[in-house]
Amino acid sequence: MWMDTKAEEKEASRSRASLGQRVLSGLLFFTGDMEHLNKYMQDKVFGLQLAVWGLRGVSRVILATNPLSGALILAALCWASPWQALLGTLGVLTSTLTAVIMGQDGAEVSGGLHGFNGMLVSMLMGVFSSAGDWYWWLLLPACLGSATCVFLFSGLAPLLDRWDLPVAVFPFNIVIVLYLLCTGPYNPYFPHHPATPAGPMEINATELMAVEVLRGIPLGVGQIFACGALGPSLLILGAVLLYSPLLAAHALLGSAVGTLAGESPSVCLHVCVWE
Hints:
The chain has helices at 2-28, 36-41, 46-60, 67-80, 82-102, 106-110, 116-128, 139-161, 170-182, 210-222, 230-243, 245-274. The chain has 275 residues and is mostly helical. Mean pLDDT is 83; it is low at 267-275.
C-alpha cells in the first residue's frame, strides 16, 4: 500500500515536471528570432509573407527580428496614437515592397532589414507635422520618404562595407533631415513645428520627484517610437523582453542613465538655491 502511494506521488511529480517543460518550451517557441517561422512561411501567399516581413521590420527598430514583438509594438502604437500607427505601418510596408521590387537580397527583406528605416521616417514626419492627426496629404511624403530609404540603403551599403560599418539608420537620418529642410513651419502643405521654441527658454525649477524619475525610465524606452504614454511604453518594453531579456535590461539601463543625466542640471540647480 505504501509502495503504491509512493509510486503515484512520483508519477504525479513527473507529470507536473513534464507539463512545466512543455509550457516553457511553448513560451520559448515565441522568443528570439523565431527562425522556424521562415520555413513555415515559404509556401504561403505573398500577402501573409509581407505581413511577417513588415512585423520583423517593426521590431528591427529595437534591434530585434521577432514578428510577435513587432505585433506588440504596433498594438502599443495603436493604443497611444492610431494615426502614428497608421503612418508607421504604411512606412514599413512601402519600404519593404520597394525592396522586393528592386530585387534586394531575399534574406535581408525577410529579416525586415529594409523596413525599419521607412517606419522611422513616416512616424517622425507625423511627429514633426504641425497639421495635426489625420492629415491625409502627409501620406504622400511618408510613402516617398520610405521608398527613398531603400535606394539610400542599397547605395550606402557597398560604400560602408569597405570600413565594416553598418548602414543602420543613415537612410532615415538623411531622408528626415532633407524633408525638414525642404519644408518648413509655414509650408502650405507640409508644415512642421519649429526646431526651437519662440522666445527665451525658461529654466525648469520644478521639484524633483522620485516617482516621476522612475516613470521616465520606461517612457524613455517608448520614446524610441515617439511614444510618450506609460501604458504603451510598458507594452513596447514587453516586446523587447519577449525577444531578449538581456536586451530589455540594457534598454532599461540606458534609459535610466539618460533620465538621471537629464535630471542632473535640475539637481545642481536645487543644490545651488539651497546653499
